[in-house]
Amino acid sequence: MRRIAILGAGESGVGAAILAKKEGFDVWVSDRGKLKDKHREVLLNNDIKWEEGVHTHEEIFKADEVIKSPGIPDTVPMIVELREKGIPVISEIEFAGRYVKPTAKKICITGSNGKTTTTMMLYHILSQAGLNVAVGGNVGKSFAALVAEGDYDYYVLELSSFQLDGMFDFKADIAILLNITPDHLDRYDYKFQNYVDSKFRIVQNQGPDDVFIYNYDDPTIQAENNKRNFKQRMYAFSHEVELTEGAWVTTNKQIQTNINNQQTNMSIHELAQQGKHNAYNSMASSIASRVLEIRKEIIRESLSDFQNVEHRLEFVASVHGIDFINDSKATNVNSTWYALESMQKPTIWIAGGVDKGNDYTMLEGLVKDRVEGIVCLGKDNSKLHKAFEGLVENIWDATSAEEAVGLGYRLAKKGYTVLLSPACASFDLFENYEERGNKFKRAVRSL
């Protein structure tokens, strides 16, 4: 019996364990941290061997193959040693892809920003069209858990760069690349090109029957495209240029999609999710939907009634004329740029957390124009202070969501917005961006 060792017992690792057990492997799950109760229960119920708080070297090195959590860097000594010994180390996505029925379509979305919204948007369209579709990957359930539980015809998968790094033979039938801006550079030896190469793994193994959908306005994507020879069908989307094929915004603010000489038009004002970034997400979703021959009416209706994901520019409440918006999922500078760009009122900006090598210069113009005060929510806020002192009069520090909301409320006036859009990771004060967003919402509702 072939042995699989799984490092990390989060959503990804537990999903991989269930699928591996179903496919007849001898499975060993190891997590150096403490397992969540729900994950421990799943492993126990499925009679899967596991350990927590330690990695037992002997057990792991018995494996024929190792599935690694996306959160574990390739530079960890154990991963380096496994590869030196010739034991393959792969991602859960790579593993799950082996057990999808050949006729199923995998629509894969990546990018520095907007990938969760686009993934859920596309899932909404395909669901409205009545297709047998599942959504997962870096959002919701793991791909492996979806493959283990059902026989879907379509998988809409959000893929992070960390997941892409562990994928080798996996192939996307439709690959969507939304944008590339510096992010996670600490994992890529602080070299932007390494991160770019990681994102472009979304198109690996694609052939003439596959599709690559990309952002025409992104200079990094365009520069990289010019270096490569593509075999697949390619469709671009643009907010700046009127194209002949793909999707674009016309001078009279219509989103026009043209695939195989079949045209679809929709006013940009009809989109449920407003803002330039959501126009990009909508165009990418529209192209993929037309490639899959979804009816134009269903696409239009779905884009006009789609509800955004939690923690992404999520309106929380209006308190005495002050709006509170939760954008906790904005864990990098570019994502926060989109959030600030969409603010129509004077803004108190709550930012901070674990800085991943951020360059805040791209935010300076927006901060000058729209931000009346900054609340820094993190253990070390020195870089934020250095970047924005002199641009705004008030910069305060907070070490809890409750304190940050209280400061934001006091700094704001009627007609202002208090925006949580951290531009940083959350794990100095919170377990993840969801906990940060939920605590922000609770604090707002208790005002």
Automatic annotation (TrEMBL):
Compartments where located: Cytoplasm
Mur ligase central domain span: 109-288
Top-level lineage group: Bacteria
Chain positions recorded as ATP binding sites: G111, S112, N113, G114, K115, T116, T117
EC code(s) of this entry: 6.3.2.9
Biological process, per Gene Ontology: cell division; cell wall organization; peptidoglycan biosynthetic process; regulation of cell shape
Gene3D superfamilies: Mur ligase, C-terminal domain, Mur-like, catalytic domain, NAD(P)-binding Rossmann-like Domain
General function of this protein: Cell wall formation. Catalyzes the addition of glutamate to the nucleotide precursor UDP-N-acetylmuramoyl-L-alanine (UMA).
HAMAP family documented for this protein: MurD (MF_00639)
Protein name: UDP-N-acetylmuramoylalanine--D-glutamate ligase
Protein's organism: Parvicella tangerina
Gene that this sequence comes from: murD_2
